[in-house]
Design brief:
Strand content of chain B: 15-25%
CATH superfamily of the largest domain in chain A: von Willebrand factor, type A domain
CATH class of the largest domain in chain B: Alpha Beta
Largest sheet of chain A: 6 strands, mixed
Oligomer: heterodimer
Number of helices of chain A: 9
Radius of gyration of chain A: 23 Å
CATH class of the largest domain in chain A: Alpha Beta
Distance between the termini of chain A: 38 Å
CATH topology of the largest domain in chain B: Rossmann fold
Structural class of chain A: alpha/beta
Number of strands of chain A: 10
Order of helices and strands of chain A: HHEHEEHEEHEHEHEEHEH
CATH topology of the largest domain in chain A: Rossmann fold
Largest interface: A-B, 39 and 26 residues
CATH architecture of the largest domain in chain A: 3-Layer(aba) Sandwich
Number of domains of chain A: 2
Number of domains of chain B: 4
Largest sheet of chain B: 7 strands, mixed
CATH superfamily of the largest domain in chain B: Domain of unknown function DUF4159
Strand order of the largest sheet of chain B: 19-18-20-21-28-27-26
Distance between the termini of chain B: 114 Å
Helix content of chain B: 25-40%
Shape of chain A: elongated
Number of strands of chain B: 42
Chain lengths: 290, 918
């Protein structure tokens, strides 16, 4: 992205009290209703869970005197265990995500960021902690985290294809990787296995442009990657369609298999489709067994 | 200029560029179409994929061919190609442009003018001076050579004349020529004796070039009369292959408007010069013809005017009835028929029939009394200009006609009985005729000696008798008397029309007398003696182009010149009028012929239609440009840049322009659909749901009608009152929606016509009349707005004895989906009373034009495609009963529409039976 434009964008974001990305994400998040989120167990939390007779190891200050006064025994007031889960998000900011087949259409990056932030909004509303993987932003809860997330997600990368970062993940936390997964598959594989080793489960969301699925090109064409480093020339682009689609299907299949092996979930979303559907899927995928 | 065949090149060395073409082929072949650059993230997946066909890096051969062709056309175009280049050496010195300027030139005068113009231009370029002369309009004082431009300004005033050049004037003019000049002679292509001397004279001054039109010269000889047919002879100058032309006879129609009275084909056979057409026309039509012309040829030669020679008078012969079986020679009409047949058209029949034909002359042979009506009609006819010729005979002599007082249809009063002279029982000799007195129409006719009269009817002497006698016997008794009556005349021959009373009918005098009386016309042949000393005035003249014009104030023409009949400046072709007849002077006389002009070999003769030089540069460059445009499209298509949308748009455009069926066919289809069977129709409101319900409702009603009655309607039709024809439909169902558009003025006109001519519209506000005839429901207001301009009579709620209650079912109310009782129909006339003993009043005689209600009948009638009811009505069995009643209302309504007040008339059946019984 060119420098003046980046500056302008940054200035715009600074000036706006509520970053547009965040607003869009909030808007999207309102489409999902929050379900129950309690752990159904006694533990640290705000909500009353049960009174139980005080045991010898209970500290005196733990005794609920108001309840104990109504009986002979002492009671301890337990609260429902409300544990906050950490969810680490990685959104591909590489140049390839800046592609939109329709002029002035929504780019993949924009869709991916909106989805990720909307999910973060939902999760933070649910009391979860959300951060960015790769030690960019530790998981925290609270509205302030959303602003920081929005800031960091808005940054554009310069490399052609991004690779997920599994660093900085807490064990047994959750993770979300959003990318087009068009680049090398090996880094993805490495990141996933590393995350799986730490007991991290999560979801892979592949965001694709409809043109990438349809390949509506014909004639003599030079295809270039977004930053121009890769190029491929063909004389009859139409003849390549089938083979390209085969490769794309193989890539998806590979990701799906990888996800299943590591206990992750995989989903492909197209920028031409409704974002809410993808958000619902994301929410369901991460809600499960949280 | 360098030429190949008919094409010459202005810059032939440029053609060397064609050698470069193979080189260009190689270069173009190696350069494939430029690629498109596309940003595409999926390129990572494309890496390593190779193209299947290695050939495609070369330009396809057809594209290559297209480009080569375009380049070749450009090279050829710039080489300056010219089709039929003119590279004759222009002459020098003065040029005489000589035009025949006859009627034969007129047929393609414009082209001749164009050719002269071209010659003048050529002379102007070559700096030659030019003189322009026409042989039919020779310049008075020799030749004046002027600059070609100056001559060109006089070109529009040059006109052909309707006659041939005068040989003497031509010779005299040729003698006045002097100096050296070339001659450019535009000949009319006809042989003339005067051509050769003039050509020789001209050749003494310089070269002569001749131009002739290859178009055939055609002309008409004057029409003549032969055996009852009009014969028109067409001529052409050069014999050739078979040809045909349309000959039309032009004249005034009864309204006085000039039009083609008859059209026929004139066919020249192979090698024939003459073609004859025999036209057999009714006399009425034939007498109206003023000229014959060959259609499509603008030349005086192709027009021939007709004169009196072609006109024949209609003569009605009426003899005494009674069917006497007489010998033919005794028939009173025999000699008249013989005398008149060659020169007149005879009509026979009863007097009443004959008068309808409005003949010129009616001959009554020995008919005494006419009925009063016949006499009146006859008198009217005479007063309007008819000539009544009566012959005496035994019946006239025996009757009391014109005895006591003058009969309006007799010229003189008659004495009783008549007389007989020279018979066996009488004294004296049969009387001879006295010479005709001056002032008699017969004056000058020789009286043969052998004509004798043995019996006659006698005129009553009275003071006016003398002036009425136009022929008398030697003893002074009147033989023929005449009296003017209005514009017409009544002539009485005091003898019979057969040889019974006199030998007059046997003599040639009889025929001449009839001619003089204008009962028959004179034969066509004109003798110079006849015309000598007379003066004739032109009434109409013919221009060289064959147009007939009013003559205006042309000087009179002497009879001698007319008899000669050669048209010229003093005697333009046309119609000349004398005292009592008109004579036509035509371009061609009856004996004239046409022959093609023969030129000596030394004179170059060119066709008028010279092959013009055509510069091909523009065409070639245009073609090259078109090819290059095609190349752009093809290259775009090849490289995938021609969007699919563009292709789709092109295809759609092609489809649109080619595939739209003509509107007429659609209309016809609509009319066929609407009229081949009874069809119920509903007005489309624009609300899809209501329109569908109306259609299904009418379908349900049609279905019910089909099953229960003898009405078997086809599927209903939704109609747009703005565009569709309403008159096909006996019945319109019009559901009112609050938001439907008010019809246009045209649609209202259509609707009113529909209502007046017996259509019925069922207006349905579908609001159950909650507001008691719609004063406040939106549909009700809409109905009022729609119905205001409609021609709707006074309305009333359906009375109990209205015919709608009993056209098929006996009904008392008319529910639909709602069961309101208020249904309005045309009000009964105020005087409708119930007759004694009748169950019903005798109400309106027709079909009520409108039925207005709000019961949403269509909903109650509607069935879906599976045949089940679409809208629930009421609750349980009561609802089904209501639906049944709704259907019965529908049946009654359609019955009412189709049978009118038939059921009302049934009221009278008992009374009718009662009367029959008595």
């Amino acid at each position: 992205m060119s420098q003046p434009a980046a500056l302008r964008r940054a200035a715009h974001e600074l000036a706006a009290p509520y970053p547009p990305l965040l607003a869009e994400a909030e808007h999207l998040a309102t489409t999902v209703l929050l379900g129950e989120h309690g752990r159904r167990r006694a533990g640290i939390g705000d909500t009353f869970w049960q009174y139980r007779p005080a045991l010898s190891w209970d500290e005196a200050r733990a005794i609920d005197w108001r309840r104990s006064a109504r009986a002979d025994a002492n009671f301890v007031r337990e609260k429902e265990w409300q544990i906050a889960q950490s969810i680490m998000i990685w959104v591909d900011s590489a140049a390839s995500m800046g592609f939109a087949s329709v002029k002035d259409g929504e780019t993949k990056a924009s869709r991916a960021r909106t989805l990720a932030l909307a999910l973060a909004v939902l999760l933070i509303r649910g009391g979860e902690r959300v951060g960015l993987s790769g030690r960019r932003l530790p998981a925290r809860s609270g509205q302030g985290q959303l602003v920081r997330l929005a800031d960091l997600l808005s940054e554009d990368g310069t490399e052609d294809y991004g690779s997920p970062e599994a660093a900085g993940m807490l064990p047994h936390s959750r993770a979300l990787f959003v990318s087009d997964f068009m680049g090398e598959i090996a880094p993805v594989e490495a990141a996933l296995t590393r995350a799986a080793d730490r007991g991290v489960r999560g979801a892979l969301l592949q965001v694709l442009d409809p043109a990438e699925e349809a390949f509506p090109y014909d004639g003599r064409t030079i295809f270039e990657s977004m930053s121009g480093t890769l190029r491929h020339e063909t004389l009859k682009a139409g003849k390549l369609k089938d083979r390209y689609l085969d490769r794309l299907a193989a890539r998806k299949d590979r990701l799906d298999r990888l996800a299943r092996e590591t206990g992750w979930q995989f989903h492909t979303h197209h920028t031409g489709d409704s974002a809410s559907a993808a958000l619902l899927w994301l929410y369901g995928a991460l809600e499960r067994r949280v | 200029m360098w030429t190949i065949g008919p094409i010459g090149f202005a810059a032939p060395w440029l053609l060397l560029g064609l050698i470069l073409l193979p080189l260009l082929w190689l270069i173009l072949r190696a350069v494939p179409p430029a690629p498109i650059r596309r940003r595409f993230p999926g390129v990572a997946l494309l890496l390593g994929l190779t193209d299947d066909e290695s050939q495609t890096d070369r330009t396809p051969w057809w594209l290559l061919l297209l480009r080569m062709l375009a380049v070749a056309l450009v090279i050829l175009g710039f080489a300056g190609p010219v089709l039929n280049p003119e590279d004759e050496a222009p002459g020098s010195g003065p040029l005489l442009v000589l035009v025949d300027g006859t009627w034969a030139d007129a047929r393609d005068w414009q082209r001749r003018e164009a050719r002269i113009d071209a010659a003048l231009n050529e002379a102007s370029r070559a700096g030659r001076t030019v003189a322009l002369a026409s042989l039919t309009d020779l310049p008075a004082e020799g030749l004046t050579f002027q600059a070609a431009d100056a001559v060109a300004t006089r070109l529009p005033t040059l006109e052909p004349m309707a006659w041939a050049p005068d040989p003497e004037a031509q010779t005299a003019w040729a003698d006045t020529l002097n100096g050296d000049f070339d001659t450019f002679w535009l000949s009319d292509g006809l042989a003339r004796d005067s051509r050769a001397p003039l050509l020789e004279a001209l050749e003494t001054h310089g070269d002569v070039r001749v131009f002739e039109s290859p178009r055939p010269v055609r002309a008409l000889r004057p029409a003549r009369f032969e055996d009852g047919d009009v014969i028109v002879t067409g001529l052409r100058a050069a014999p050739g292959a078979g040809a045909s032309a349309t000959l039309s006879a032009v004249g005034l129609d009864p309204a006085g408007i000039e039009r083609q009275l008859a059209v026929t084909e004139m066919n020249w056979e192979d090698g024939a010069i003459e073609a004859e057409v025999a036209l057999s026309l009714p006399p009425e039509l034939r007498n109206r013809i003023t000229r014959f012309e060959l259609s499509g040829i603008r030349s005086a030669g192709a027009v021939t005017l007709t004169d009196d020679a072609l006109k024949r008078r209609e003569v009605a012969l009426i003899g005494p009835g009674g069917g006497r079986e007489e010998l033919q020679l005794l028939s009173p009409l025999h000699y008249l028929e013989q005398a008149l047949e060659p020169t007149a058209d005879l009509i026979e029949g009863t007097l009443a029939d004959v008068l309808l034909a409005n003949p010129d002359v009616i001959v009554l042979a020995d008919i005494a009394a006419l009925t009063e009506i016949e006499a009146d009609e006859m008198l009217d006819w005479v007063r309007a200009g008819g000539l009544l010729v009566r012959f005496a005979g035994p019946r006239v002599a025996a009757s009391d006609i014109a005895r006591a007082e003058a009969d309006p249809l007799m010229p003189v009063r008659l004495r009783a009985g008549g007389r007989s002279v020279g018979g066996a029982m009488s004294w004296g000799e049969p009387k001879a005729l006295a010479p005709f007195a001056e002032g008699s129409p017969f004056f000058g006719l020789p009286v043969p000696d052998d004509v004798s009269v043995s019996a006659q009817v006698m005129a009553q002497p009275d003071p006016s008798l003398a002036e009425r006698v136009i022929a008398q016997l030697a003893d002074g008794t009147p033989l023929v008397t005449r009296r003017d009556q209005g514009q017409g005349q009544i002539v009485l021959f005091h003898v019979t029309a057969n040889a019974e009373w006199s030998s007059l009918p046997l003599s040639g005098l009889f025929v001449q007398m009839l001619e003089r009386l204008a009962v028959s016309t004179r034969p066509a042949a004109l003798e110079a003696e006849d015309l000598a000393g007379t003066t004739w005035a032109a009434r109409e003249v013919l221009t060289a182009f064959g147009d007939v014009e009013e003559a205006g104030t042309l000087p009179g023409v002497s009879g001698e010149a007319l008899a000669e009949g050669t048209p010229g400046p003093d005697l333009p072709p046309g119609l000349y009028e004398g005292e009592d007849r008109a004579i036509a002077v035509n371009v061609l006389g009856p004996e004239d012929g046409l022959a093609p002009a023969i030129w000596p070999d030394r004179v170059p003769v060119e066709g008028l239609q010279v092959v013009r030089e055509t510069v091909l540069k523009g065409w070639l460059l245009g073609a090259a440009l078109t090819l290059l445009l095609i190349d752009i499209l093809a290259a775009l298509a090849l490289s995938g840049r021609l969007g699919r949308s563009a292709v789709a748009a092109l295809a759609a455009f092609a489809l649109l322009t080619s595939g739209t069926p003509p509107a007429e066919a659609q209309e016809e289809d609509f009319a066929l659909r609407a009229t081949s069977e009874v069809v119920l129709a509903h007005v489309l409101t624009g609300n899809d749901q209501i329109d569908r319900l109306a259609a299904r409702g009418l379908f349900g009603l049609s279905d019910t009608l089909f099953r229960r009655t003898s009405i078997e309607p086809a599927a209903p039709i939704g109609i747009d009152i703005e565009t569709d024809e309403l008159s096909f439909f006996p019945f319109l169902y019009w559901p009112i929606t609050a938001d439907q558009p008010i019809p246009s003025a045209d649609a209202y006109a259509k609707l009113n016509r529909y209502l007046r001519t017996g259509g019925l519209i069922l207006f349905d506000t579908r609001d159950a009349d909650t507001a008691r005839f719609g004063s406040s429901s939106p549909e009700g207001r809409m109905l009022q707005a729609i119905a205001r301009p409609l021609d709707i009579p006074a309305l009333e709620p359906v009375p109990e004895d209205h015919v709608l209650t009993r056209t098929f079912y006996l009904l008392q109310d008319f529910p639909g989906r709602h069961a309101s009782r208020d249904v309005w129909v045309e009000a009964a006339p105020p005087g409708a009373e119930r007759a004694e003993g009748m169950p019903f009043r005798d109400l309106n005689d027709g079909v009520t034009p409108v039925v207005i209600g709000g019961n949403d009948w269509a909903a109650a009638w509607a069935i879906d495609e599976a045949g089940s009811r679409m809208v629930p009505i009421g609750r349980g069995m009561a609802g089904e009963r209501q639906r049944e009643l709704a259907l019965r209302f529908g049946v009654n309504l359609i019955m009412h529409v189709l049978t009118g007040n038939y059921k009302s008339d049934q009221v009278h059946v008992p009374a009718l039976l009662d009367r029959l019984g008595q």
